[in-house]
## 1
Amino acid sequence: MGGVGGDWARYWRAGRRPLEAMHAHFERHVYHRHSHDTYSFGVTETGAQAFTCRGAAHTSAAGMVMAFNPDDPHDGHAADALGFTYRIVHIGPELVTEALADATGSRSPLPLFAAPLVADAAAAGALRAFHRALLDPAATALRRDELLAGTVAHLVRAAATQAPPDPPMARGTSAATAARARRFLEDHLLDDPTAEELARATGGSRFAVYRAFVARYGLPPSDYQRLLRLRRARTLIADGVPIGEAAAATGFADQSHLTRWFVRCFGLTPGAYREAACS
C-alpha cells in the first residue's frame, strides 16, 4: 500500500501465472495512454473514472465494469476532485482460454469485448468477488481458480463476441505492415531505430508505416516501443532483478527514468510492484 496525497494502491501478482490485481484510489494520478498484453477487467467502486479508448471518451461510474482487450490503448483520470476507487485484474489470454474451457467444457476462440464499458450487475459482482479472493491471503488456490472461471464466463456472456473482426485500417494502410513493424520493435528492443530504418524493415514508406501502426495498435511506434520496454522491465522486476539493472537491461536512461514511466502507465512504482503480495 502506498501513494501520494489522497492516492493509494495495493497490488497483487500470481508468481509465474499471468494474473495480477490492483485495488486503488486515485484523485491526482493521471494514466498515460498505454495498453497491456493481457485482458484487463476493472470495476469502479466509488466516484467516476474518465478515460479514452478506441477513439471515444468514456466515464466509468460506480458499479460499471471496464473491459480492455489485449493491446487496447487507454488512459484514465478522476472525473472530479473526489477521485475514484476501483479494482482491476489483468488476466493473460492463455488463462482466459483455460477459464472458458472450465466454464463451457470445450475450447472456445478468444473473446473480443466490443465496448470498453459494461453495465452488468452480475458481471460486476463476480469481478468484485474474484478480486477480493486474489487479495485475501486466506483464499485457497482452488477457490481463486473457481472464481476466475466464473468471472470470465460472466463477462463473456455479458459483453463479448467470439470472433475478433479485422481492426479498422485507414485507406492505404496495411495490417501486415503494422505487424511487421511490431515484430521489428520486439526484436530490437534495445535499439534506437529511426523512422526510415523502421520503414525499410517493413517495406513501406515512413508515413504509411506510421499510419498503419497507429490504426492497428492505437499508439505511435515510439510509444509502443517504450511500452514494450516497460512490460519487459516489469517481468524482470517480478523475477527479482534489481530495479536499476532492469532499467539498464530494457533501454531506460536510469532507474528514475524507468520509475517515472512505470508510474504513469501502471499506477505504482517499480518498488511497490516488486513488493506486491505474491502467491
## 2
Amino acid sequence: MSQYAFPPLRATDPAAFGRVAVLLGGTSSEAEVSRDSGRNVLEALRARGVDATAVDGISALAQALVQRRFDRVFNILHGHKGGGEDGIVQGLMEAFGMPYTGSDVLGSALSMDKVRTKQVWLSLGLPTPRYVRLLSGEDVHQAAATLGLPVIVKPANEGSSVGVTRVFSDADLEAAVELAARYDGELLMEQLIEGDELTVAILGDVALPSIRIVPKGQWYDYHAKYVAEDTQYLCPGLQGQDEAEIGRIALAAFQAAGCKGWGRVDVMRDRASGNFYLLEVNTAPGMTSHSLVPKSAQQAGIGFEELCWRILEQTL
C-alpha cells in the first residue's frame, strides 16, 4: 500500500475527455524541451485510448478554439513569451471557456515571476534565499556586497536554468549580468545556497517523494538537465522527518503562489545548517525522459500513462 493518498480515478472511459489538444512547442526559449515533453504526453494518452492531437503554439491553439475543434487542453508548453507558463494562454482558454490542465492565470503569472513569488513566500514566513532585484543601471557590485558572495544571477522570468550564472568572484559579476540580460524582464541576484539540490513534484494536493539531484559537474545546469546521461536522481531524496518537512514546505509554497493541479517546486538544502530554501515553482514541468515529475510519480506507484491521465482528469 502506498503511503501517498491518491483519490480514486474519476474517469475510466477515455471518451469522457472528448477531443484533447496537447499544447506543446511554441516560441519560448524552452520550445524544444516542450515538444519533447508533448510527444511523450501524446503517446501516453493515446495508449490509453484518449482522442489526443498535438497543437504547436498559441496561434494554432487560438485558431482551434475559434473553430471549436477540442473539448479540453493538456498544456505542456514551457516558459513565457510564447510558452504556456505565464498566464497568457490560460487567459485565452478562460475566455473561450476551455478546460485546461495545470494552474490558472494567477498561479501561472505569479510563479513565472521569481521576484514576486519570493515576496509572497516571505510574507507568509516561507524560507527562500535572500535576494536583490537588479534594475537597469544598478550597481551589481554593490548588490553582491549586500548579499555577500557567492551569489546566483538569473533572469526573473526564465526556466530550465536559462541565463543562470553562479558567481564566486567580484570579477565575474559583469559577465553574469550580461548573460542574464539577454532575456526579457527583470534580473534577480540571489544568495547562493551551497548544499543539496532537491525538487518536489505536486499532484493535486499531494506532495510526491522528493528527488535529490546529483549532477556530475558543479551544479544542475541546462546540460545536466537535458543532455548529460550521468546526472543521478535519488528518490526519495530524504528520509523520515526531513522528507515529511520538505513535502510540507513545497506544498505550502505551491499553494501560496496560487498554483493548482500539478507542478514542481525546486528547493535547496543548506549543507551547513540543514535548512530548506525555496527557489521556484514550475507550473508545467518537463515530461521528457530526463524529467523529474515522472520519476517521482513512479516512486509513489504511478506510472507515466496514469500520471498523464490523472493530470488530464483534473479538467473534468
## 3
Amino acid sequence: MTSDVTGTSTTPVVEIVEVAPRDGLQNEKKVLPTEIKAELVRRSLDAGLRRIEVTAFARPDRVPQMADAEALLAEVTSDERLTSIGLVLNRKGLDRAVAAGCDEITAVVVASDGLALKNQGVDTRAQIEAWHQIAADAKQAGVKASVIIAASFGCPFDGEVSTERVLEVAKGCLDGGPDELAIADTIGVGVPAQVRAIVSGIRAIDGEIPLRAHFHNTRNTGYANALAAVESGVTVLDASTGGIGGCPFAPGATGNIGTEDLLYLLDKSGVATSTAIDAAQVAATGTWIAKELGLAQAPAMLGRAGWFPAL
C-alpha cells in the first residue's frame, strides 16, 4: 500500500501536499483543540507525508478554526520531517507566517472578481498586486512562496470562469516570480478537459514553473481531474486525509479529494509519489479525524473499502 519513487525516468512522479490541517479543517463547524490538530500533523508525518499545509493566517473572527495558527506551529515545527506551509492573504499574514517559522507560504489570488471581493474585499487585479509584494517580501525573508489561483474552474458568484481569464491571471501571478504556481477548483465544478486546457495554456506561458493542483470532489470529478493534471504535467497535488473539508460558498460540497483515495488511484495508474506514503496509515488517520470532528464517517472511501487486492 506504499507508493514511492522506484520507477524509471519515464515513470510519472507526483508530490502530495497534505492540506487536511488547513483546508480540511477550516470550514468544519466543530473547532478542534490545538493538540488534536498537532496530532493530525504528526500522524500525517508518520504515514510518510512531508509537505503539509499546517494552517492559515486569517482573522480569527472570520476563520475561528485557524485562530491558533501560531500555537499550532509551535507544537510541530521542531519535527525535522516537516516542511510547513502557511496560507496567507496579505502582508500581515506573511509577517505572522514568517514569525511563526513557516518553511513556505501560499498566497491566494482568485480568478473571479465576484469571489475575490466576497472573500477578501478586493478584486483580482488588487490581489495580484498584493501577491507581487508578498512574493518579494517572502524572498527577502528566505521563505519559499507559492501562489494559488482560486476559482480557476468556476465561481459561485460569477458563474463559469474561462480558460482565457485563468491564463490572464496566471500571467500576472507569474510576474511575481513564484516558486510554484497552483490552480484550484475551489467549488468542485471542473472537468478534465478544463484541466488539460489550463495546464497546457500555462505551460505555453512558462515551460519551467513547477505546477500544483488543488481539487474538490463536489461533483465526483476531483479524482478524474487529478489524473488529468498529472497526465498534463502537473507534479504536485493537494489532498486532504479523510477527504474532509469544503467551501462555504459551495452548497453541498463534499470536501477535498481524499489523500488515501488519491494514493490508490495514483498507485494503480502507475504514478509514483516523491516519498513513500502508507495509504493504510493515512486511511486510519482519516477515520480518526472524522470521529474527532463528529462526522458519521470520513468522506474518503479507502478507509471503508480497503486496498485491492487486500494485503
